[in-house]
């Protein structure tokens, strides 16, 4: 298979899950395991252009596939716009769901470069975050979508929010 | 564990015949969860990913390998609606109709549509082909009549009305296993079929209720009340950690009526 | 407090500074516990009980031990030191001591070459169990006298009578913290009989104290390190796998790693206490509370964990943020054969808040007074005594202001529209817009800040000036909440230096910072950092004879007199501080005294759309006004609010660990333990009320728990408003709405 643009050949025990292959054999520990029943989405990677939950996929099923993990997004030391959005717009706290969340967002934006808030929410419904309440995740994806379209992202909300004394 | 990846349907059938208790694997969204939870330890897995034969889909046939992501674009409204409720985008990209049939969970989202449409499940093996109506195929919770050497290749869909509605009750807005699911297909002149999931050992049809709904092109509130009452009377739900039998019985009637009302609009 | 600096510091207190760990986290490079590796490491797997109660009549690890690739198997008999752990009362066997007391209790742990071998070996252990009748009902546990702690409150006149009386029973199911990262850890033997441990922790020093006792080590033989955590929310306050992997590492001489799966995680970490509560409120005709009586029973599960402290919170906040002259509470936390309960965000105040706020709404209805007006008439303000403990509020407490502020926020549009995303039932298409009823509900919460009841609560920090900036050393734990950013901001503002880095020290390098819990680290670790930074700045100015400090060095009359590098060469300036908050007291026999150091309040408003016929709920909007003292980082603070609201809302309508009648857990997976998804989470409007406190850095108050506390009753109140149902149980299930009493 090809992982993050690099050809990878390995003999694996057929029982090996893709997520374990990525983490344990390739050392790509940015892909996380949150539930092993395909509900949390922390293990989301992109397989042949579509998002997939790597905890319910065998490594051998990905034989010959093109796989992108979180480690494959940043290029030449530059963060991918979605990565930048999650950082700049505080779309993370503990960060454990973040790589999977980012991969789902990348998948969504590749199909829909200008999603509405509702479309973002539908697109990310398979990724659970326990920390943020999702609000800043939506803002982070909006930021990335604008950047990827070559537009200036909307200013951060906190620049306009008030505190009462 | 042995992993076999046939390139064509014939090879797959040979593989299924060659091994003792082989496990077919398509999207893996059900099977791999079972494996991860230690509920199953398959010795031989036969991957169906390379079988283009299973991906054919037209008005009268849905191949077992068609994913729910594709079915979201179905012309049949109920099929598109149910496909949208399956798991999450990642799951829909992988999960197949054949997997739903093979797992045969009473909560499987596609089964109410297939039952309402009177679909036939087509099984193939090196010994030949079997064509079974949905109610001949499912025999219990997660139980079908498929033999280990047989492969589900697809379903045949008879002609069906355009008025269709699917509904699924769960306590979360998305990514939830149903407490009740329901599909109604209605011919404008009256004939109506209603099937329900998660309210019996297998998907079931509420035939007494169908009789009431099918009697006329225009239904009165009294007819709808009776339809709802009969659906609730016909379902056979249990109480488990997801819901109670009492609630499921009630909700089945309500969603069936509402689905029928959608078809009447 | 104002700090005179030469230049305005960028990224100091009050700004929405981005997280220093944000870049590694978005790149997948941040190191979580489950990412840790060591050469030659073994993998551990745990064999767990499948029944809630039983006696082990035979335990045979022979087959497992003999399997190729298996290096060691440990059971209770192998624990070299004190075989029981627990941070308040050590009553939890490190491994099952012969009597199984809850589903999922750890019986034996295997170390093997790889995870699969370890798992198969754990399955190969023979455990013969004679099942015993489990205690699964809290009333039954109380009858048996199996009480971890009874907290009584007797204040005022028991004969006092109001004009109006409302009485009710309330019940709450078990909530799990469900952090996205499950427990993981690595133990590495040091070759000299000691061990280095990385494990899931909110307080490494208290883990250290327990571990050395259980492992029979001298304190210096164990170093507990800090590594990345995939969330905590209370789940990491008590030990889970740490003792097991440390012991296996010591016995095998090899590094040992373990990574729990979700079922292990549900079995192993503490839960939020399920509760059963009875309340009677009496008020005069104007709505002023005359007397509140309550009987609360919390399900502590099989072992004590932090239950004793949780029940003190439940009891002392039994009335909520209201004045009441006569208060009588009997709060019990009892032992059952459910998995142990312990800390979760809110720590006992959530249960009290749900019952008390439900009562306030019923009282308002009975009196014909607007529910907010009733709350305002009773609002606890500075100078008032807490209704339970009698403790006078001496710090700012803007109870009325948070209520008025949240009520003043605009309500969302009335129309649900026909987008299924915005209707109950969501993508399931169950509910047409004309079957939807809207409801609005309010609730007000109060929470203590930091530790209470006379506990010697302190945090240590060291601030060291380096050649190009400053280092903050601490053992306070970043669980995701953003403490690391806050400490940097505090240090920057206090030092005048922007280049500040936080170094998370292991237990051998610095003293305790206390737990990352109890809404305490901004004030406690932050308080220590503030004082250490101020001392470092003073020391630098004194050494160089200057009047200002920044990233270049020390200045005098606008001229640079000594660079940071020169300063560092003279001998590093390194200031250590142990910071304590004002003292608290233990309660007397009537629960009276200055038990808490400080309080914070918040008010929530929830707007819901309900399909009453199907009992489905869609939360439309949740607003909050919260007393935060002083905002250190606005975006992080709002992030904590939104995330906290999601958790409290989850408990209100979907999250419950369901127990079967035999005490086993029916849904230990994310398939059936439902967490709110992005489609379930509504918009949140937050008003941050700043009335600076006297002892937190820059006037800041802890704030991370309250967003979770009062949202649960607010959501339920909104569902009641929509449906007219009594809804006395959380989570509210569809069948409760459809079939429940009015």
Summary keywords:
heterotrimer, A: 165 residues, alpha+beta, Ubiquitin-like (UB roll), DNA polymerase, domain 1, 2 domains, 5-stranded mixed beta sheet, B: 265 residues, Uridine Diphospho-n-acetylenolpyruvylglucosamine Reductase, domain 3, Enolase-like, domain 1, 5-stranded antiparallel beta sheet, 4-stranded antiparallel beta sheet, 11 helices
What does this structure look like?
The complex is a heterotrimer of chains A (165), B (265) and C (742). With 165 residues, chain A is α+β, with helices and mostly antiparallel strands. Chain A is 31% helix and 10% strand. Chain A has a five-stranded mixed β-sheet with strand order 2-1-5-3-4, covered by helices on one side. In chain A, helix 2 packs antiparallel against helix 5. Chain B folds into two domains: 2-36 and 55-156, Uridine Diphospho-n-acetylenolpyruvylglucosamine Reductase, domain 3; 163-264, CO dehydrogenase flavoprotein, C-terminal domain (Enolase-like, domain 1). Chain B is built from eleven helices and 14 strands. The longest helix of chain B has 20 residues, at 245-264. The radius of gyration of chain B is 18 Å and the shape is globular. In chain C, strands 3-7-1-14-11-12-13 form a seven-stranded mixed β-sheet. Classes of the chains: A alpha+beta (165), B alpha+beta (265), C alpha+beta (742). At the A-C interface, helix 2, helix 3, helix 4, helix 5 and strand 6 of A face helix 1, helix 15 and strand 28 of C.
Q: How far from one another are the termini of chain C?
A: 53 Å
Radius of gyration of chain B: 18 Å
CATH topology of the largest domain in chain C: Aldehyde Oxidoreductase, domain 4
Structural class of chain B comes to alpha+beta
Work out the oligomeric state of the chains in this entry.
Answer: heterotrimer
Beta-strand portion of chain C reads 25-35%
Number of helices of chain B: 11
CATH architecture of the largest domain in chain B: 2-Layer Sandwich
Strand order of the largest sheet of chain C: 3-7-1-14-11-12-13
List the uncertain runs of chain C. Answer: 1-5
Integer-rounded radius of gyration of chain C: 26 Å
Largest sheet of chain B: 5 strands, antiparallel
The structural class of chain C is alpha+beta
Under CATH at level 1, the class of the largest domain in chain B stands as Alpha Beta
Q: How far is the N terminus from the C terminus of chain B?
A: 53 Å
Overall geometry of chain C? globular
> Can you count the beta strands of chain B?
14
Tell me, what's the shape of chain B?
A: globular
Number of DSSP strand runs of chain C: 29
Total domains of chain B, how many?
A: 2
């Amino acid at each position: 298979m090809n992982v993050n643009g690099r050809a990878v050949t390995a003999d694996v025990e057929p029982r090996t899950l893709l997520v374990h292959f990525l983490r344990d054999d390739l050392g790509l520990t940015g892909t996380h395991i949150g539930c092993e029943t395909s509900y949390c989405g922390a293990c989301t990677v992109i397989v042949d252009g579509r998002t997939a939950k790597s905890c319910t996929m065998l490594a051998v099923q990905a034989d010959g596939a093109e796989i992108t993990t979180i480690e494959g997004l940043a290029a030449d030391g530059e963060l991918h716009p979605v990565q930048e959005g999650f950082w700049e717009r505080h779309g993370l706290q503990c960060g454990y769901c973040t790589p999977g969340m980012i991969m789902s967002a990348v998948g969504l934006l590749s199909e829909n470069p200008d999603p509405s808030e509702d479309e973002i929410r539908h697109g990310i419904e398979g990724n659970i975050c326990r920390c943020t309440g999702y609000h800043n995740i939506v803002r982070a994806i909006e930021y990335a979508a604008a950047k990827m379209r070559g537009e200036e992202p909307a200013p951060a909300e906190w620049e306009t929010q008030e505190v009462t004394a | 564990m042995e992993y076999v990846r046939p390139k064509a349907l014939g090879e797959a059938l040979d593989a299924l015949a060659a091994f003792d208790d082989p496990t077919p694997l398509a999207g893996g969204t059900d099977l791999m969860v079972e494996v991860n939870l230690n509920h199953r330890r398959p010795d031989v897995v036969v991957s169906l990913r390379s079988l283009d034969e299973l991906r054919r889909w037209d008005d009268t046939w849905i191949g077992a390998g068609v994913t729910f992501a594709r079915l979201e674009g179905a012309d049949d409204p109920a099929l598109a609606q149910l496909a949208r409720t399956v798991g999450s985008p990642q799951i829909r990209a992988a999960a197949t109709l054949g997997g739903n049939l093979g797992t045969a969970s009473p909560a499987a989202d596609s089964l109410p549509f297939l039952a309402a449409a009177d679909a036939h499940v087509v099984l193939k093996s090196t010994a030949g082909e079997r064509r079974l109506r949905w109610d001949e195929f499912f025999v219990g919770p997660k139980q079908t009549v498929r033999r280990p050497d047989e492969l589900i290749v697809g379903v045949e869909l008879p002609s069906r009305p355009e008025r269709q509605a699917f509904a699924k009750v769960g306590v979360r807005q998305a990514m939830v296993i149903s407490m009740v699911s329901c599909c109604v297909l209605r011919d404008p002149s009256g004939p109506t079929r209603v099937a329900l999931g998660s309210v019996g050992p297998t998907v079931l049809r509420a035939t007494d209720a169908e009789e009431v709904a099918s009697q006329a092109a225009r239904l009165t509130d009294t007819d709808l009340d009776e339809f709802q009452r009969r659906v609730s009377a016909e379902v056979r739900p249990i109480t488990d950690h997801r819901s109670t039998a009492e609630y499921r019985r009630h909700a089945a009637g309500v969603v069936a009526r509402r689905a029928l009302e959608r078809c009447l609009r | 407090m104002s700090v005179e600096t030469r230049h305005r510091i960028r990224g100091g207190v009050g700004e929405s500074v981005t997280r220093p760990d944000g870049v590694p986290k978005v790149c997948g490079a941040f190191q979580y516990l489950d990412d840790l590796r060591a050469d030659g490491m073994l993998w551990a797997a745990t064999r767990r009980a499948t029944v809630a109660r039983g006696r082990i009549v035979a335990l045979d690890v022979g087959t497992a031990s003999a399997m190729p690739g298996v290096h060691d198997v440990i059971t209770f008999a192998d624990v070299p030191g004190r075989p029981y752990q627990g941070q308040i009362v050590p009553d939890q066997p490190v491994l099952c001591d012969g009597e199984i007391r809850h589903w999922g209790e750890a019986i034996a742990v295997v170390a093997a070459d790889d995870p699969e071998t370890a798992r198969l070996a754990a399955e190969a252990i023979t455990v013969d169990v004679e099942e015993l009748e489990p205690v699964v009902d809290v009333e039954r546990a109380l009858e048996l006298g199996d009480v971890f702690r009874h907290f009584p409150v007797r204040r005022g006149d028991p004969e006092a009578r109001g004009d109006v009386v409302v009485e009710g029973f309330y019940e709450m199911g078990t909530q799990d913290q469900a952090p996205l990262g499950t427990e993981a850890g690595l133990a590495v033997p040091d070759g000299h009989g000691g061990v280095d441990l990385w494990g899931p922790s909110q307080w490494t020093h208290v883990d250290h104290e327990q571990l050395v006792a259980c492992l029979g080590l001298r304190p210096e033989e164990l170093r507990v390190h800090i590594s990345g955590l995939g969330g905590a929310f209370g789940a990491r306050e008590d030990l889970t796998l740490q003792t097991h992997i440390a012991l296996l590492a010591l016995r095998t001489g090899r590094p040992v790693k373990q990574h729990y799966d979700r079922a292990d995680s549900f079995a192993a970490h503490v839960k939020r206490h399920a509760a059963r509560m009875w309340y009677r409120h009496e008020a005069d005709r104007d709505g002023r509370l005359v007397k509140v009586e309550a009987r609360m029973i919390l399900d502590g599960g099989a072992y004590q964990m932090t239950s004793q402290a949780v029940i003190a919170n439940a009891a002392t906040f039994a009335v909520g943020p209201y004045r009441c002259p006569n208060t009588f509470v009997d709060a019990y936390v009892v032992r059952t054969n459910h998995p142990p309960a312990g800390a979760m965000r809110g720590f006992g105040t959530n249960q009290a808040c749900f019952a008390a706020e439900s009562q306030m709404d019923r009282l308002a209805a009975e009196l014909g007074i607007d529910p907010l007006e009733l709350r305002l008439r009773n609002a606890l303000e500075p100078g008032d005594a807490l209704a339970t403990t009698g403790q006078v509020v001496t710090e700012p407490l803007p109870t009325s202001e948070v209520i008025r502020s949240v009520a003043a926020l605009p309500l969302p549009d009335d129309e649900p529209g026909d987008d299924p995303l915005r209707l109950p039932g969501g993508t399931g298409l169950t509910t047409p817009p004309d079957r939807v009823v809207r409801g609005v509900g309010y609730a007000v919460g109060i929470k203590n800040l930091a530790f209470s009841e006379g506990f010697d609560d302190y945090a240590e920090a060291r601030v060291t000036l380096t050649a190009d900036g400053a280092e903050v050393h601490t053992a306070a734990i970043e669980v995701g909440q953003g403490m690391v950013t806050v400490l940097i901001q505090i240090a920057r503002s206090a030092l005048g230096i922007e280049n500040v880095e936080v170094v998370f020290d292991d237990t051998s390098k610095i003293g305790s910072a206390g737990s990352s819990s109890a809404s305490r680290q901004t004030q406690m670790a932050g308080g220590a950092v503030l004082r250490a930074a101020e001392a470092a700045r003073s020391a630098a100015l004194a050494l160089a004879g200057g009047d200002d400090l920044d990233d270049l060095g020390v200045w005098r009359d606008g001229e640079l007199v000594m660079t940071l590098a020169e300063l560092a060469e003279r001998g590093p300036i390194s200031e250590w501080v142990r910071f304590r908050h004002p003292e608290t007291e233990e309660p007397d026999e009537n629960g009276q005294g200055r038990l808490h150091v400080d309080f914070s309040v918040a008010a929530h408003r929830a707007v819901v759309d309900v399909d009453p016929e199907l009992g489905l709920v869609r939360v439309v909007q949740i607003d909050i006004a919260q007393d935060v003292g002083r905002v250190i980082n606005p975006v992080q603070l709002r992030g904590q609010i939104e995330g906290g609201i999601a958790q409290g809302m989850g408990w209100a309508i979907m999250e419950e660990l369901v127990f079967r009648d035999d005490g086993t857990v029916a849904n230990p997976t994310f398939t059936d333990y439902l967490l709110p998804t992005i489609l379930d989470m509504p918009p949140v409007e937050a008003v941050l009320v700043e009335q600076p406190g006297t002892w937190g850095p820059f006037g800041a108050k802890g704030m991370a728990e309250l967003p979770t506390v009062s949202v649960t009753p607010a959501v339920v109140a909104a569902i009641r408003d929509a449906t007219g149902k009594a809804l006395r149980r959380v989570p509210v299930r569809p069948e409760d709405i459809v079939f429940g009493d009015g």
